[in-house]
Structure of AraC transcriptional regulator with GATase1 domain:
Amino acid sequence: MTIPSNSAKSVAVIGFANAQVLDITGPMEVFSQANRVAMGQNQQGKVEPESRYNRYTIGLYSPDGEPFRVSNGLQLVPVGALADIGQNTHTLVIAGGQGTLAQMENPALIRWLQRAEGGFERIVSVCSGALLLAQAGLLTNRVATTHWSACQTLQSNFPETRVNENAIYTRDGKVYTSAGVTTGIDLCLALVAQDYGRAVAITIARSLVLYLQRPGGQRQFSRVLELQSRTSNHLEALVFWMAENLDRDLTVATLAEQACVSPRHLARKFQQEFGSSPMKLLAFLRLEKSRELLEESNLSIQIIATQCGFQSTETLRRQFNEQYGISPSQYRERFAFARDFG
């Protein structure tokens, strides 16, 4: 694979004490892999001479230029301080993690971020690094996301930020934000696809043994897991079984038999724990599964309808539109790979 030999884009990653290490190393590895792809370098280290071009120059920086320990105890050595980040830097990436709150009280870092807004083509936060951007005013009147556990903090402390709790990453102008930890990898894969095309990002994902690629608007975690986390062990097993058998003709009687209770008792327990009837929850699980298949597969709408237990494609279309306000075909188009950033 040969990539055009235009000049490399400079990437500066900012880390700090008690940052989450994957917020730093994940993005750096994606951009580093892009260079290896450009060199035609495979796992054996062989190089195709016709494509020896770096696509990115990558540097790690800390606020004061000193080495720092991340949250797992690993010590990282930056190449410099904030003042050493060049004016020609294309993409700025700022990490998050346990040390984020302390850095929000670091006036030197916050002032630097405020001044830096106009100097980069892209400003990227990973995980709770979005709080640092918000503290510097970079998320004012912008859509953003962060780790699910920090979404409420971001919204309550910075009400002028439009927080998307479900997205794994967002873009608003030049500012990109991602959710927790590994979603920084998803975002950086999308940036590489934006810069050099989908095929390059696919090759990187394969090299990193990743599923390519979660779209930015995808939920941060499974709705089925949400339901399971809210319920008793007895109903948790039933919800899991329902999710694994959506293609079957399931009735209240079938579910009650699976749970070894009467239909009336099952209905009462569902209302207590979910505020919903068994059949309404089943319909919701079918819609969530259809949404997942639309995002992650090339299956036809008809096959998806069958696998999810809908009586017809028309039933799927009608219920999908009622739940999500968009047709299955429109949803798939919206979440097609590398179209997040247009």
Remarks:
- Confidence is low (pLDDT under 50) at residues 1-5, 41-51.
- Residues 278-296 form the longest helix (19 residues).
- Strands lie at 9-14, 56-61, 68-69, 75-76, 91-94, 122-125, 143-144, 162-163, 169-172, 175-178.
- The two ends are 24 Å apart (CA to CA).
